[in-house]
Amino acid sequence: MDGETTTLTPEFDHWIGTLYRAGATVRPEHFRRQALESLRQWVPFDCALWGTGTLENLLFHTLDSINLPGGFSEALERSRHLNPVLPRILEQLGKPVTMTSVYPDEQFYGSQLYASTFQPFGIERILSTVLTDERGGLYTLLSVYRRDRQRPFTPEDVALQERAVFHLVNAASHLVFSFLNRRQNDVPDDSAACVCDAHGLYHEVQPNFLDLTERHFPESPRGRLPFPVGALDDEQTLNGLSIRIRRLGELYVIRLWPSGPLDELTAREREVVDAVSRGLTFKEAARRLGVAPSTVSNHLYRVYQKLGVHSRSALAKLVHEHDGS
Fold first, then answer.
1. Which of 131, 160, 180 is the last residue of a domain?
2. Overall domain count for the chain
3. Which of residues 180, 195, 212 is at a domain's end?
């Protein structure tokens, strides 16, 4: 790429723009892999890794990769105490580092690190970058690899990688926030959301989500959910909050909102309420739900008792208030 960096700049800037507009066509859980694939046109590589984890132990919580055999990420984790690139990239956040710059070839290719971690997977050249989120104690590692020892990464590759990684990570964050901010018809307007991993660590979080957790869970830990993800049902109430959880690839979307009377209903009761509040008769609601009209009537009677209402109009008013309409 010698001599081409300047002429490629407008095209490179256009590519950066496409990253931020990706939300129109790419779901968040697919973005990182697709973005890595598109990076190859600027920094050619044979395989790549985009992982996220905690700074306290430097283990991966989420991982996307291209053309890397199974077992490589585990080998990389096991050898982190041997890897001189790691402390360098943690000192120079956002600055790509080649293995050659910290471990000369004549030493690296005779080392235990090479023999145990890179040689078994055919990796000869390494270029790595780390960015951190101090609020949540998370790091993002983006590494690209070449299998040909005779093709070291050039200063031009390093410069393009530095620009690219900043925008890749920020475009991924932008995409997730856009996803979270889309109106959800099945939750109240005052709901708030976060994206977290299986350990409950926030990867993206709306400010009002933090407000709700701090108010309802005064002892909330910094940077993570105040309750275990694994203990959650798809929907439930806890400490005065209604909680809904959905998978997003390796991650989870958690939505919270202050519980109201309707949140105490069962799923079937909510279906009956939805049908009746739309003006359907018992027969129409029964046909829609695949149950007998008497079943709809029985559910509606229990709903009236739970909510303390006595008419369809009062029920419809409660539903509209709950939905923020």
1. 180
2. 3
3. 180
d(C-alpha 216, C-alpha 239), whole Å: 6
Polymer length of the chain? 325
Residue 134 and residue 241 in one domain: no
Residue 90 token pair: 């943690």
Please state the pTM of the whole predicted model. 0.76
What CATH number is attached to the domain comprising 298? 1.10.10.10
156/78 same-domain check: yes
What would the two tokens of residue 120 be? 């078994």
Domain that holds residue 315: 263-322
- Tell me, yes or no, whether 147 and 281 share the same domain: no
Distance of alpha carbon 267 from alpha carbon 186, whole angstroms: 12
pLDDT tens track of the chain, all 325 residues? 444 443 458 899 999 999 999 988 899 999 999 999 999 999 999 999 999 998 888 889 999 999 999 999 999 999 999 999 999 999 999 999 999 999 999 999 999 999 999 999 999 999 999 999 866 678 999 999 999 999 999 999 999 999 999 999 999 999 998 888 887 767 777 889 999 999 999 999 998 999 999 999 988 888 889 998 877 777 788 888 889 999 999 999 999 988 876 666 777 878 887 888 788 888 888 888 888 888 888 888 887 877 777 777 777 777 776 665 4
Structure tokens at 111: 């080392």
